[in-house]
């Protein structure tokens, strides 16, 4: 992009310069805060990713154990163990609830399981079939715990991924678009103000030179007028003395003529 497209179309004034500087300060602070937020979310994102990997690795072992426990229960208590389970269960004893966790301003959903009622531990059936059913139940409870944890981690993973992408887009926009545009606008306004200042200085120098010439002309005219006034005042005095001297010389010449 050229410099023209990388700056805002504003009027180059001191007020606009102050506004642009304030906006640049705000954009700089916002960029720093968003960068810190992005870093914090990235750290949390990597931690969740590690937890997801370890949970999925443990989930395979847990699901295998629960499947073998179910097979053992069916082998010992018989294939049809559904009625035995239904007799001991009135309401769901294991439930899942959700809550929110705030990470750098991003609300992450988190699931957790809880138990509301106690289940009967009756050992029903021959050959310890009830004990095998309880072991199968414990294995599947463990599997549910792992599944709930994995669901919570994966939901948080997706939410963090979207938040990180949005934050990075904002950071890139501030860093590559908003801040350069404001900086170029400030540079343009400063250049225009400097040019206007130079023009005003040149204009003032021209006005001062013109005023100085006018003052000199007025002073010269005033001096000339004063000299003319002075000459007018002194001229009669000079005329009287010359006439009297001329008369005096003329009278002396006449007296000499009479004597001779």
Automatic annotation (TrEMBL):
InterPro entries membership: V_ATPase_D
GO molecular function, one term: proton-transporting ATPase activity, rotational mechanism
Signal peptide range in chain numbering: none
Alphabetical UniProt keywords: Ion transport, Transport
Gene3D superfamilies in alphabetical order: 1.10.287.3240
Family: Belongs to the V-ATPase D subunit family.
Protein name, as recorded: Vacuolar ATP synthase subunit D
């Amino acid at each position: 992009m050229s410099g023209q497209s990388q700056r805002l179309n504003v009027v180059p004034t001191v007020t606009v310069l102050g506004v642009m500087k304030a906006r640049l300060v705000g954009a700089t602070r916002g960029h720093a805060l968003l960068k810190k937020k992005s870093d914090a979310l990235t750290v949390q994102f990597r931690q969740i990713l590690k937890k997801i990997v370890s949970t999925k690795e443990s989930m395979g072992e847990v699901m295998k154990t629960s499947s073998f426990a179910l097979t053992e229960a069916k082998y010992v208590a018989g294939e049809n163990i559904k009625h035995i389970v239904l007799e001991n269960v009135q309401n769901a004893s294991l439930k899942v609830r959700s809550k929110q966790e705030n990470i750098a301003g991003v609300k992450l959903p988190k699931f957790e399981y809880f138990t509301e009622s106690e289940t009967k531990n009756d050992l029903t059936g021959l050959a310890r079939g009830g004990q095998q059913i309880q072991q199968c139940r414990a294995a599947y409870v463990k599997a549910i715990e792992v599944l709930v944890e994995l669901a919570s981690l994966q939901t948080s993973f997706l939410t963090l991924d979207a938040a990180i992408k949005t934050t990075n887009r904002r950071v890139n926009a501030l860093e590559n678009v908003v801040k350069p545009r404001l900086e170029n606008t400030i540079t343009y306004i400063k250049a225009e103000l400097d040019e206007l200042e130079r023009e005003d200085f040149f204009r003032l120098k021209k006005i001062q030179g013109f005023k100085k010439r006018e003052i000199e002309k007025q002073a010269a005219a005033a001096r000339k007028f004063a000299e003319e006034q002075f000459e007018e005042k002194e001229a009669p005095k000079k005329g009287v003395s010359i006439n009297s001297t001329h008369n005096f010389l003329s009278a002396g010449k006449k007296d000499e003529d009479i004597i001779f």
